[in-house]
Design goal:
The protein has about 290 residues and is α/β, with parallel strands linked by helices. It is about 45% helix and about 20% strand. Helix 4 packs parallel to helix 6. The N terminus and C terminus are likely disordered. The protein binds adenosine-5'-triphosphate (ATP). It comes from Bifidobacterium apri.
Amino acid sequence: MDATYDDAERAQSLRDTSQETGDHRSLGEGRVRSTPPMIALSHVSKSYGDKLVLDGIDLAVEQGEFVVLIGPSGSGKTTLLQLLNKLLPVDSGGIYINGKAINTMDGTVLRRSMGYVIQGGGLFPHMSVARNIGIMMELSGRPRKEIEERVDQMIDMVELSRSLKDSYPNQLSGGQQQRVGVARAFACDPDIILMDEPFSALDPITRTDLQDQIVKLHRAYRKTIVFVTHDMAEAVKCADRICVLQHGTIVQYDTPARVLAHPASDFVREFVGRARDLERTLGAALGCKEEQ
Ligand SMILES: Nc1ncnc2c1ncn2[C@@H]1O[C@H](COP(=O)(O)OP(=O)(O)OP(=O)(O)O)[C@@H](O)[C@H]1O
């Protein structure tokens, strides 16, 4: 069955069962999932004042999936991400983590259970690299020795030098700051990691390095990742599935191969086309440089 159809059906079944049961195992008539999706949104809407920004979003993200949210500026990507960790409240509809409605969960507890990486790393400027990485563990009262060991492990994992442990964020390059942000997100071993344009402020080479790194980490640890970007090439490189947003609705949710080969609308075709044009232009420009 077509993945997009399957998701639509699943989302529909979530909608049908959510109010009554609060449990998300139904897959429609007579079919039962053995596990709920790691993340499910059922008819979620969100407005700022009278401006509707997300309009009846149905979305399921499976455990261990890498889903990229992509769309033009203002299409609602960041808003959607911030609904997932309750930085913003939904106006209507439901969000479920592992089958459990997040409106029953404490926002702080929920956020501590998820990794969150934003542009620039979102590091605390007055804390050292080591403390930035270990802060969530510190807040959860983990023993100092365990935190120290984990910090070293995370620093090695993101291929930073341990000599930077006592440095402060303003003493690091943009790429190093972003690596610290990624290390912090993984430190508490969360099931879910949310990433909001984490690499978009970086130069192309550093950006490529970090994309490679996150793909590698995803393969190794199979975290469920929801990643926001404007960049189709980044989406194709990293995603198991790409969710294309336009004016607060999902216009396609499918594998990179299918989004590229079968764009669901003229809008998606144009979006993919622009990315390909850019890639060709960049490729040509880089090719010229190499020849010089
Ligand atoms: N706090 C806010 N108050 C009012 N309007 C907001 C607020 N935050 C976002 N918006 C508006 O909601 C819409 C969606 O914003 P959002 O940041 O989710 O889009 P986005 O797709 O992430 O955009 P970008 O790619 O530029 O970051 C935009 O029109 C934005 O101006």
